[in-house]
Design brief:
alpha/beta, 6-stranded parallel beta sheet, 7-stranded parallel beta sheet, Rossmann fold
Length: 415
C-alpha cells in the first residue's frame, strides 16, 4: 500500500452529527492505515463550541491535521460564495506547502475548490458525490426553479457536475442505482472502473445488537417492556415523509393499542405533534428525543420495528439513508418505501423488513401482515447488514483509492 498525503474538503462540519458519524470515522480509519490527512471543514458556531474538544482529541490521537473554518449562513447564497472563496484560497495555500497526492472532496460545494486544484495544479481528484445534490435541492423544494436566482445556481452546479464527472480521477457514489444512472452519462463513457459504490456505513462496534440494550432503553424512556414500539432516527425535513409515517403509525397502533412511536430527531416537536393530531394519534403515544451520536443506539434499542419513508424522485436514486444501516446493524427490521436508492435491494438482501409501494392504510396493513409472517432473527439481520454497511469495509475501499491516486500522482510527477 502506498501511503497518500490527502487534502480532505468538506462543507459539513466534523462537529456536526453527520460529521461525527459519516466523515470522521472514515478519516480516522484511513489515517490508521498510514495515510496523512489534512481536513478543511466548515463548522457551525454552536456545534464547534460544544464539540471541538472531543473532535480535536480524536483528530490528534488519530494523526489528522484538522483546520476548521467558520461556517456562514447569512445572507443566503452570498455567504456560501464567500465560504467557497475562503476554502479555495486555503486549499491552494496548503497545497503549495504540502504538495498533496490528492484532494478528496465531499459533495458539490467543497468540489468547487477541489475542481480548481485539479484544473490549475493537476492534483488528482476524488469526487465523493454523496448524491445528486443539485437535483436533491430542487426535489426537496429548497431551490425553486421558477426563481431566476435559484435556476442560475442549479445550472451552475449541473455544469460543475458535468466537469467533475469528466475530469475526476475517481468518483464515489452512495448507491448502485446511482452508479447505473451515472454510467449512462456521456462524460463517463468507457469509465465504469472509475466509480466505486460506498454506502453510508455503520460502526458495528457502536451500533451493537438492540437486545443487549433494550431493557435499559425502555426503562430510560418509560416504555412498558411488552409495548410494541415503532422507531425513527434522523431529520424529518426535506423529502422525509412525516405525514405518511404518522399515518403508518396510526394503523400500527390500531393493531397494537399500547404501541408507542419513538422519534430520535433534532426536529421541532411541534411539527410532530401537529401531524399526530391530524392523524388522530394521541400525543401520549409519542416519545421524542434529541441525541448525540453516542446516545443514538442506546435509544434506538427500544424499537421493535424501524421506519424510513422518503419521497421517491430522481435525486432519491442516489440516497442511502443512514438510519437504514444503523437500525439493521442493531438487528431491528425496517419498513421502507421503494424508489429510494438501493433500499429495496438492501431489504431483500438482509431479509430485514418489507417494502411498500403506495401510501395508504391498506398498504400499511399489508406491510404489517408481511412483517408478522417474516421469519427473521435479529442476529441474521445484523450479519447480513454487516456485509453491506461495515465501516471497516468502507475504510478499506477509501484507503485503496488513496493509494491508487498517490501512485498516479507519483507517476505524473515523473513524466
Amino acid at each position: 500500500m502506498t501511503p497518500a498525503t490527502v487534502l480532505y474538503l468538506s462543507y459539513d462540519g466534523l462537529t456536526d452529527p453527520l460529521g461525527r458519524s459519516q466523515v470522521l470515522p472514515y478519516l480516522l480509519g484511513c489515517a490508521d492505515r498510514g495515510h496523512r490527512i489534512t481536513v478543511l471543514s466548515f463548522e457551525k458556531h454552536l456545534a464547534l463550541t460544544n464539540e471541538e474538544p472531543a473532535v480535536r482529541a480524536l483528530c490528534v490521537a488519530g494523526g489528522i491535521d484538522w483546520l476548521p473554518l467558520h461556517y456562514h449562513h447569512k445572507p443566503p447564497v452570498i455567504s456560501t460564495v464567500y465560504d467557497v472563496v475562503r476554502l479555495t484560497r486555503k486549499a491552494f495555500t496548503l497545497n503549495r506547502r504540502r504538495r498533496f497526492d490528492l484532494v478528496h472532496c465531499r459533495s458539490y460545494v467543497a468540489a468547487v475548490a477541489a475542481f480548481k486544484l485539479k484544473r490549475h495544479r493537476q492534483v488528482p481528484l476524488l469526487f465523493d458525490m454523496r448524491g445528486f445534490w443539485p437535483d436533491e435541492r430542487v426535489d426537496s423544494g429548497s431551490w425553486d426553479l421558477n426563481s431566476r436566482l435559484y435556476r442560475s445556481i442549479y445550472h451552475y452546479f449541473k455544469r460543475l457536475e458535468s466537469n467533475l464527472l469528466q475530469t475526476s480521477d475517481y468518483i464515489v457514489s452512495l448507491t448502485e442505482t446511482a452508479k447505473e444512472t451515472l454510467l449512462r452519462r456521456p462524460e463517463l463513457a468507457g469509465r465504469a472502473n472509475s466509480i466505486s459504490v460506498i454506502p453510508t456505513s455503520v460502526d458495528f462496534s457502536h451500533f451493537i445488537p438492540a437486545a443487549t440494550l433494550r431493557d435499559t432503553a425502555r426503562a430510560q424512556l418509560g416504555i412498558d417492556a411488552y409495548a410494541p414500539v415503532l422507531g425513527y432516527l434522523g431529520s424529518l425535513g426535506g423529502s422525509y415523509m412525516l405525514t405518511e409515517m404518522m399515518d403508518f403509525f396510526s394503523v400500527y397502533k390500531r393493531r397494537n393499542p399500547g404501541a408507542r412511536f419513538l422519534l430520535v430527531t433534532m426536529e421541532n416537536a411541534r411539527l410532530i405533534f401537529g401531524e399526530a393530531r391530524r392523524a388522530g394519534v394521541n400525543q401520549g403515544s409519542l416519545i421524542i428525543r434529541t441525541a448525540g451520536r453516542d446516545e443514538v443506539p442506546k435509544l434506538a434499542a427500544a424499537a421493535d420495528l424501524g421506519i424510513a419513508f422518503k419521497r421517491a424522485s430522481f435525486s432519491a436514486e442516489a440516497c442511502a439513508p443512514t438510519k437504514l444501516g444503523e437500525m439493521l446493524a442493531m438487528g431491528i427490521p425496517m419498513v421502507a418505501n421503494s424508489g429510494v436508492g438501493d433500499v429495496e435491494r438492501v431489504i431483500e438482501r438482509t431479509g430485514g423488513g418489507t417494502i411498500i409501494r403506495e401510501f395508504n392504510d391498506q398498504c400499511y396493513a399489508d406491510a404489517l401482515n408481511r412483517m408478522e409472517a417474516l421469519a427473521y432473527s435479529p442476529g441474521a439481520i445484523r450479519a447480513h447488514a454487516r456485509k453491506l454497511f461495515d465501516l471497516n469495509k468502507a475504510v478499506d475501499t477509501y484507503s485503496n483509492l488513496y493509494s491508487k491516486l498517490a501512485t498516479l500522482n507519483s507517476e505524473r510527477s515523473r513524466e
